[in-house]
Amino acid sequence: MRIRLIFSLKNKGAYLPFHHQYILAQFLKGLIVKGGQEEFFNYNYFNFSGLKGQTKVSRSGLHYYSSLVTLVVSAPDEPFIDYLLKQVFKTPKIELGNLILSPEYTEKEIEPPLETSNKFVCISPLVLLTPTFDDESGKRFINPDTDEFSDLLYESTLTRMEKSGWYNQEQMESFYKFQVVPDMVYVNKLREQQKKFARIYSVYDMDVKYEVRGYTLPFTLYAASEVQEFVFKCGLGAFTHKGFGMLDLANNMPSQRTEPYKFKREGFVPYRAQGHEPRKNDERADGGESKSVEE
To answer: Where is this region: Disordered (predicted)?
Structure first.
């Protein structure tokens, strides 16, 4: 399931670094541990987007100017989602970088139908390699139209699916069909415009900083429906629980497929259920791409 967490921004104009997934990852990990339920401490089958809102770029990073900002969180397990949301709403004042936020309400995305062939876009960068300590291999560039690009994603996906314990051996053996085909028209157009689709990002794991290369590009995935569902809910590639590899269907209209979500918390009434609606001129709580404020 995919949940949109909508926050009110208390200090418009405050900023986050361009690449702030590590800040969000530390925040969510802190909430998970703070809640005290040990069964969730090492839960890695969740995924999340960057923080979405109306932004303006400066040398400092992304300045947020909308009254509302959105974080999309995804996981197949409803108890984990409810546990995480409970911790969020126990924290009335949240500081992320220079932003001061307050949780307002939650929405659930209505799951789109997935075929054995789907075109996806990356909501957050796609990481192929998991580096080890004092190892630079995680920054290695791999051309998207090579077999290695697809093979690395296949290996990491099947490994995670097997470790989850959700699929029997017969199912795992049936998942051998897997191919990632990037949209090279898009990639080549970026190259012609001297724009980047692959950048270096920081990741923190066990208090150790790693640098990895992340790719942001559209692609078509050919795989079994179970595999499609897994990557849509849990992310694709490495460091998915650190906020990388979150996907959405291309040409999807997320603002048209949401419903209010009341997570299981005794006595809790979601903001929207109280009769409140998002402000019409603020950021759409749809998890889509950030809008830019005019100069």
So the answer is: 271-295
pLDDT in tens, 40-95: 999 999 999 999 999 999 988 999 999 999 999 999 999 999 999 999 999 989 99
In the chain, which ranges are E strands? 2-9, 15-16, 47-48, 54-57, 62-64, 68-74, 94-96, 99-109, 117-122, 126-127, 178-182, 198-205, 208-215, 219-223, 247-249, 258-260, 291-292
Q: Tell me: do 185 and 225 sit in the same domain.
A: yes
Q: Do 213 and 103 belong to one domain? A: no
Task: Give the CATH number for residue 35.
Answer: 3.30.70.1890
Residue type at 228? Q
157-211 pLDDT, tens digit per residue, is 999 999 999 999 999 999 999 999 999 999 999 989 988 999 999 888 878 888 9
Residue 173 host element (H or E): helix 169-173
pTM of the full structure: 0.84
